[in-house]
Amino acid sequence: MPKKKIVVKPKDCDADKPDDLLSPCFQINSNVELKDIPTTGEEYLLKVIKERENYSQVTKCDKDFSKFAKNQSCFVNELPLAKVHDNLKPTIEWQNIQVADFSDVRLYISRLLANKSQWPNSIKVVEFDQDNLITWRKFFDINEPTLSCVLGLRYTLLDRALEVLTDIIDDVEPGKTIDYKTGQWIYAFLACTRQPLLSDTTSILRNLARKCAEIRSHLNPEAENIKEAVAPLNIFICLVSRYFRQYDLAD
Hints:
The protein is mostly helical. Helices cover 49% and strands 0% of the residues.
């Protein structure tokens, strides 16, 4: 068995010179053989040293990730919130009322989720391909936006539903607003959104608020029915910003 020899510093190391990260901490006896399966501490250290020699002292990324920048930018850079005419902005008192009413709805839903025995008998268990936009649009058209319908969806479909609804309102013509049924659907899915928010959910909610702000920016503040037209847009912007705490999007 080779005689063990451990030296804290190399023989030619100056005692007054500060330690260097590249200076070896241990010296291995020259009689130690390199083995595939070390059986002693020195054999193990020798194997580690030899494996380390196969790697550069400084490792840097040698891949070009610029081609992924376009895909990643949508999660980093956000468009500025569309400007709004003062006549279209909701008051703080109005927003507080909306948040309070929404909180009551959320509390009722949380109690239902905690005790499924209280669920309505009309609960529908809905299963379909979440990536099929035609199926989603058909679902929104033939079903009513009731709680019994939304509760029948799997959790994984809730975020996707809000994402699809945001795409649907993207088709709203300038000067128009969200139709009543679509607004009901959005409110229903917001009421069932889980907390704490996942990063994907936060992104979807922020996109919804920004899209509502964009639609609102094209409304005529002097129109006869402007209060009815702007109400759903203000509600969704208010809930995303004040209830779900995306305060930078608040009016």
